[in-house]
Structure formats: structure tokens, C-alpha cells
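EI: anyone free to look at a 215-residue chain?
SC: sure, send it
EI:
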Amino acid sequence: MAPPSNIKITYFKNPGGAADPTYITLLMAGIHFDSEQIVYGSPEWEKLKSSKTLPFDQLPVATIDGKQYSQSKALFRYAGKLAGYYPQDPLTALKVDEITEALDDLIKVAAKAFYEQDPNTRAKYADETFQTSFPKFVGGIEKLLESKEFAVGHQVTLADIYTFTTMWALKHKLKKHWDDKLLKTYPKVECICKKIEGNPKVQEWYAKNPFPQMA
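SC: here you go
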């Protein structure tokens, strides 16, 4: 599938957020896009939200050849199809979706810690994430992964990218609670994360868009 002539992704200035998988997919495939990053709660965001031009009054949105589209997972799969990272074979695509949706379940638990302001409650949610949900979902994914090279099949798919972006977000958004030894228990997951992280375009993106200091 040939990429459109113009893609602009509008999202919050939020490394590790919902637009990251789409960014990384397009970057790795060498597909040009413009990134418009807005500070949440800023006058710019309030003006955009009140304009009623966003499909669901939320971000991210992608403006593709002048038309807006939304929903982070829909944009991620679209980027994957452009990049050739989303399998055409239905069963192979099912395997990819199985992994990405398991990671979504993990993120739903972790999100309670991401946004909690009280340190004690945040620590409680982080413990729930890493002691209960992490072994459940990452352990399950470890069993599903077909090799240390690729999550599904014999090339990069959205499953590889989403595995990396999920671990990257957990590591940086819950920095005080993350332990690098966590992934040692899951060697295939760890290898896939290192492979995506080692991509020069990915490294350049995060160098330009660093995580803020987080608990």
C-alpha cells in the first residue's frame, strides 16, 4: 500500500502515550509524517477541544491528505498496513492482535498508577501491575512468541512494536517501581524489545522526545 502524500499526527506531548506505537511504526518503515504535540491543559488544547473539530473530542488524531481520523489502535493498524507490518493472512493477523490486546489489558492496570497523584496509592497500583498483572500477561506473551527474533512469523509486525512500546512506557512512567530484572524472566520478550529499541530511528525519536521525570 502506497503511503499518502501527507500525514500529520496530533497528540499530547506525552512520551509513552497512545500515539507512540503509530510514531514508531511509521518511523521504522521510513514513512514521513508531521508530529503536532500539544501540552494537555494548555490554552492550545482547550481551544482545539472547544472547536468541536475532533471526531470524539479527544486525541490522537491523524490528518491524512486533509481529512481527520481518530482512535489510537485504528491509527496504529493503519500505519502497520502502510508499513507492511500488519499481516494480510487472517490467522497471522489474529496472532498479532492476540499479543497487542493482551498488552492493552496490562496497560489498563498500569494506567491506574500512571495517573495517581498520591504516592502511597501510586505505589499500591504499581505493585499490582508488576507483581500480579505483569507476570500474567507478559508471561502469557512469552509463551506465544514464536522466536527471539520476531513475535510472529519471520519479520517485524505490530506485535513486536507494541511489545516494545508497552515495556518502554512501563519502564519510564513507573521508573521508581521498574526493575530491569523483570524482563530477564521473559527472554524472548526482552530480545524483541532490545531489537526495536536498537533501531537508530527509534533512538533518535526518543532522544528528541524524552520522558519527563516521573515517579
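EI: The two ends are 41 Å apart (CA to CA).
SC: 👍
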